[in-house]
């Protein structure tokens, strides 16, 4: 009955009334390659617009319990908005390495590789010219699917190996935004790809996310030092502000006196998932009580980074002239652990020639009963 009601509610709002972005605001050359905006739609009225600049989800319209569609991801209505943004990761594909690598360095097969540092003394999200800042090739598009491709050259941002990456975005008729990643290399290298949309289920720019309810299917997390690099410990969440095994308001414990919360200025940590015996692992659920919107996350990755928008500060005005305020959006990034190339006890992120990297993240949207 709930699923039927959701489909019925989707049909109440004609697709053409959604404030879709004019593709012409993205159609231009950037660093010798053409940037464009692509639109995906499913049978239930959900719409996503994605640009090949950084593989960014520019907007994503989903309905509330009254059938009203709202764009639930932060971003800009022009390419120039992204090029000049204070927050460079809105909606983007992340690589070669999602999250942090300590001091921008790792050793592989007795060779030391030095990466640019762009987060204090550490390397973050592939560096300043990571996958978020390149123009991807568009291989194929239909109404529901976009296939993007990028060849990261040997030595790019300090990483070894020519890395061929293919990514699909699919907006399914089960109301999922399904993201799949494949990669191959001609030299041993480290790979940890993820997605970095900033979500607010009230609608982007419609206030803070501290009243969203969050569930993380994670009995452990990896504590960090003051630079947000994992200490190497694996700590139970039980009895800590990091226990989201049941739906809990995000803001209910974020101001507690806790060293880890102080280091992250709130939540900006890696949780270790309770892996499924078969199929994809249920990673997370978010509920926005007023609208009734829900989002579930599924993956084949061993962990998820939850970031509570602690560095948003109201300095960005995005789509629809809305200000992106402090803790006004959240990220749920499925991934391997941060700094794994320097942490032998963590699951390996090493990719060798002849192997294929594969990762999948599914954001599934629905309504609260």
> What global shape is seen?
globular
Radius of gyration: 19 Å
Largest sheet, strands/sense/barrel: 9 strands, antiparallel
> What is the total tally of β strands?
30
Helix content: under 10%
Whole-number average pLDDT?
A: 95
**% residues in beta strands:** 35-45%
- The span between the termini is 10 Å
Query: Tally the helices: what do you get?
Result: 3
Main β-sheet, spatial strand arrangement: 12-13-14-15-30-24-23-18-21
Low-pLDDT runs of 5+ residues are 1-16
Q: Structural class given helices, strands, pairing?
A: mainly beta
Characterise this structure.
The protein is mostly beta strands. It contains three helices and 30 strands. The strands form nine sheets. Strands 12-13-14-15-30-24-23-18-21 form a nine-stranded antiparallel β-sheet, with helices on one face. It has a five-stranded antiparallel β-sheet with strand order 20-19-22-25-28, with no helix packed on it. The N and C termini lie close together (10 Å).
Task: Give the topology, please.
Elements: H1 2-10, E1 28-30, E2 33-35, E3 37-41, E4 47-51, E5 56-63, E6 69-71, H2 79-83, E7 92-94, E8 100-101, E9 105-108, E10 111-114, E11 123-124, E12 137-141, E13 145-152, E14 163-171, E15 176-185, E16 189-190, E17 194-196, E18 213-216, E19 220-222, E20 235-236, E21 248-249, H3 259-264, E22 268-272, E23 281-287, E24 293-299, E25 303-307, E26 316-317, E27 323-324, E28 331-335, E29 350-351, E30 357-367
Antiparallel strand pairs: 1-2, 3-4, 4-5, 5-6, 7-17, 8-11, 9-10, 12-13, 13-14, 14-15, 15-30, 16-29, 18-21, 18-23, 19-20, 19-22, 22-25, 23-24, 24-30, 25-28, 26-27
